[in-house]
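for ur thesis appendix - Nucleic acid-binding protein. copy paste whatever u need, i formatted it the way the template wanted (i think)
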Amino acid sequence: MDTDTDRGCPKCGHTETDIGTVSTTGGGLSKLFDIQTNSFDVVSCTNCGYSELYRDTTSGASDVVDVFLG
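the 3d part is after this line
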């Protein structure tokens, strides 16, 4: 496989994305008191809706798009 042509959405190959965030509770007391302890970036294909979650980091959103698109 040529890695230069293997870019885009893993499902449909489209190259446009939307980025959102989602927060979740952990376990134990944070779940009991509904405290959001985990944050993720959600990268979604604008064509087919395929989405991947990436643990939120301090680096920019463009880094997760680069991982999503290959």
